Amino acid sequence: MLTPNMHYADLKDSYLFAGISQKLSEYLEAHPGTHLYRMGIGDVSLPLCAEVIKALHEAVNDQASKENFHGYMPECGAPFLREKIALFYAGRGVRLSSDEVFISSGASDELGDILDLFDKSSSALVIEPAYPAYVDASVIAGRRIVRLASGKENGFLPAPDDGIEADILYICSPNNPTGAVFNREQLQAWVDYANRHGSVILFDAAYEAFIEEEGIPHSIFELEGARTCAIEICSLSKTAGFTGTRLGYTVIPKELERCGMNFNSMWVRNRTTKTNGVSYIIQKGGAAVFTPQGQRQIRENIQVYKKNAKILMEALDSIGIWYTGGKNAPYIWLKCPDGMGSWEFFDLLLNSIQVVGTPGEGFGVCGEGYFRFSTFGSPEDTKEAARRLLRLLGQK
Question: Stretch 216-226: mean pLDDT, rounded?
C-alpha cells in the first residue's frame, strides 16, 4: 500500500492568513462599501517599469517570428540574463561567474526546491519571527527544525551561538517580517559560524534593493568566507514588481562543497532533471531590469514605497511606539501599544479605523505582541492610514 508523505500532517494550519481573511470578510459583510486601508499584504501596487514592458513586448514579437522564435530555454537560465546578473554583482564588488547564477521562477519556489541539495537528516535553523515558508518547507521535508528566538532586546537580529548545532541556516536580511537588517559585522559572525560548523547559509536577499544605508551588505558574498558556506536566493518581485510575472535567481559559488559533493554541479543536475527553464519572454523582461535605464526606473518605484515607510514611521514616532524596519526594508515591525496582543491590536485597528496589518503571532511565538505593516500600498491610502493611526492612538 502506498504511503504518502506523512510530514504534511505535521504542518500547522495557516491560521494567520485564514484568520485575517475571515475577519475581513465578516467586517465587510457587516459594513458593506467600507474602504479598508490594507497594509498587511506584501504585494506591490505599482506596475512594471517601462523598460521591462518594452522588453516583454519585444520578446512576444520574437515569438511571432520564425527567425527569432525561442522554444525550450536552457534549464539553468538564458546566458544573456545570467551574464547581466553577474555583471550587476561585479558593479558591487562581488566576483561571480555567470554559471554560478541560476535563473528561477521566483524566490518562494527556489526556497523550497533548494532543499533537494541536503540530506533529509540535516537540521534547519530558523530565526523567529520567521517567514512561514522556511518552517513549512522544512517540515514537509521531514527535517528537524532548530528555532532561534529573537526580540526587541537584540533588535530582532540575534548572534550565532556555538552551543547550537544546525546544518542549514535560514537568514533573511532585510528581514520579513521584522524589517531588521544585519550590518556587516553581524552578518560576518554568521558566515564565520557556518564555516566553523560546516553549515550552509540559505541567504534570502529578496529585499536587498531597499537598503539605503552605506556599509550594510546587499549580498552575503560581500563577506569574507561566504563562498564556502552560502547560497543566495534573490527575487525580482519586490525589487522590480515581478510578483505576478515570477522571476528570481540563485547564486551558488563553485567553492561550496561538502563531503566531496559540489553544490553548484548538483544544482545544475537538479535543474536539468526537474525543470525546462523559465520562459524566454519573462527572462527578456528580467534582463531589462539590469540595464541602466531599468535600474533608474525600478529605483523610482522603490522610492514610492520608501516614502510610504517614512510616512508611517513619522506617525509611529509621534505616537511613541517602538518599531524596527522601514528605513532599509519595506516592512515595519512595531510593538503593540499598552501590552496588547497582536490579534487584539488587529481587531482594534480594523474596527476603529479600518486599517489592516498583520499580527506578529502568525510568524511564530516570538511575534506575539508585535505587528507588521507593509509599505507597498498606494501613497494615498498610506497617508490616510497614518492620519487615522495618529487620531486613534494619540499624538504625543
Answer: 98
